[in-house]
Amino acid sequence: MLRAIIFDFNGVILNDEPLHFLAMQKAVATAGINLDRQEYWDKYLPFDDWRCLDAICRDHAAQLTQQEREALLAFKSLNYAHLLEDSYPLFPGVADFVVRAASRYPLAIATGARREEVESTLAATGLADHFLVIVAAQDFKRGKPHPESFLFALECLNRRLNGRSPKIAPAECLVIEDSIGGIQGARDAGMACLAVANTYPREKLAYASRVAGSLAEVDVESLAGLLEGP
Hints:
Elements: E1 4-7, H1 17-29, H2 37-44, H3 49-59, H4 66-84, H5 94-102, E2 107-110, H6 115-125, E3 133-135, H7 148-160, E4 173-177, H8 180-188, E5 192-196, E6 210-212
């Protein structure tokens, strides 16, 4: 039985993954690193900024001090804000899907994005009241594909629901993701996963319970059936 839905943010709700890449590419260039788009998509996309930078530095044998890393990430954030320009581009069908889903299920977000980025987007697009829980980069240590963020989001949902009996179990949750690492994390958490092909081609998302071209083509009433699958 489906009882809760957990959304990823970047690449599922907000169409800004290319902006994060460009912002990180420009930032790491200041450290002499040439970051390729395909490399970013294949290796780093599921990570939050800190984990992304750590992985890039490790793979490119770049040694940065803590102060240098903090300055580089601050520069990345400025780049991202400049590219976004307060436009908050949602993917097609997302706003309507969220409203319809929230009328049937409690909703949460589990993302490697910074909390302020998520909250500003939800506030600007009128979606803030539809999510009971936001789990952001500051709230967990092990990023996707580790399941920690999804399990913590479920824990927070159960607390927000004030001891609803019985508690919602992982097997009663659906995760909506766009990345390969996100799908792996959801499945390892014991949750079903709906993948949207916003970032990767469908064939790379086959481990999900279902793959859709976008949320615009998904009927909320059909989601319960995904928990009956493998």
